[in-house]
Amino acid sequence: VTEAIVRRFAGQQILVIGQYIDQLDELGEHLNAPVIKGETSNAQREKLFDAFREGEISVLVVSKVANFSID
After folding, report:
1. Quick one: pLDDT at residue 44?
2. DSSP labels for the chain?
3. Where is the Helicase C-terminal domain (predicted)?
């Protein structure tokens, strides 16, 4: 379902938020999108969030834990 939504809104900024890390990792692979989760360093999170905000990354997958740093 998520892949169909991403295809439908291709070219737009899409933030995918989930709970189960194994599913998020698999989804990130299928979507060719980075995954931010609890083990992601703060520096890497900031780099990915900045790239997402600037439009360099159109799809970003985050765990529920990681989404607390989104502004």
Report:
1. 95
2. -HHHHHHHTTTS-EEEEES-HHHHHHHHHHHT--EE-TTS-HHHHHHHHHHHHTTS-SEEEEETTGGGG--
3. 7-71
Q: Going from the N-terminus, what domains does the chain have, and what CATH number goes with each?
A: 2-69 (3.40.50.300)
Q: How far is 53 from 70, CA to CA, in rounded Å?
A: 10
pTM, two decimals, is 0.84
